[in-house]
Amino acid sequence: MSSPASETNKHPTDGGQDREKGKPTGRGRKVRKVAKNGALAACFLAIGTTGIGTWKLRSSLPVLTGEHRTVHVEHSIKLERDAMGLPTIHAKSREDAAYGLGYLHGQDRFFQMDLLRRMTAGRLSELVGKAAVGTDKRFRKHRFGQMAKEIYDELAVDQKLLVDAYSKGVNEGLHRLEDEPFEYQVLQTVPEDWQPRDSFLVMLTMLCDLQPMDGSPEQGLTLLHEKV
Description:
Elements: H1 4-9, H2 26-59, E1 78-81, E2 87-90, H3 94-108, H4 110-121, H5 125-128, H6 133-140, H7 144-153, H8 157-175, H9 182-187, H10 198-210, H11 216-227
Antiparallel strand pairs: 1-2
């Protein structure tokens, strides 16, 4: 008759191994195989995701070399960048220079420009979601969108030509990218073309940054006038 200890030795341990032979049981081998395959799949997924992300990011970066034709300039223009990436525009007219400036901005800074115009117009939540609804409410009451349109409509002809040339440059620079700016890929949306009035929305954003929007300076001056 076997002792209790010898009877216990005939059964597998919790680790899925036979104590006598020191080898994993069929169930233990299956678990290890599944774990190994899962780890490999996760590794390949991480590598693939990183590769795709890197490719999408690089494809949204500005195009620094090459030539392209456009109907929006009167003469040829040249855009040069130094070792730090700072651009220089060579143009024969102000309109062509404005187009070149817009082209550079469209390639380098379109998402930031989009945030500024949307914030002032009270449309930021359309891009980033509910978190910006409060900001939109504060700005919409000022009707900056209508104000920007009126400013543009009242421009002199030569000034309007400059703003139009800049806007055309912004849009062409944006569309010449191999892919949308990376931020739009993250947000899973596409950018809207730049409109001439949007430049004035950005200026109004700077105005709001430099002074309170609640009218407190004017209220303070009024109170001071009444007391003095």
